[in-house]
Design a protein that fits this description.
Elements lengths: L4 E4 L5 E5 L4 E5 L5 E5 L12 E6 L6 E5 L5
Antiparallel strand pairs: 1-2, 2-3, 3-4, 5-6
């Protein structure tokens, strides 16, 4: 699956991106994956795909948004 969007944290310490069903967060300095959500043991509460992500101004919270897309 492909990356839908990506976001740097305001403090420059984290890099996050997502596809429809997983979110990845990396340490920007080391390149290490620090969080992987939506795959494996950590599941999302919603069955709908992630469509957006955004860090809080203090870089402590990563908000995810999603929803059912219809045509």
């Amino acid at each position: 699956s492909f990356t839908r969007s990506a976001e740097w944290s305001p403090d420059g310490k984290w890099w996050a991106c997502h596809n429809s069903y997983a979110v990845f967060v990396w340490d920007a300095e080391t390149g290490d994956t620090v969080h992987k959500l939506g795959a494996g043991k950590v599941k999302f509460a919603s069955p709908y795909p992630v469509t957006r992500l955004r860090f809080s101004p203090d870089s402590k919270v990563l908000a995810l948004a999603g929803g059912h897309l219809t045509t």
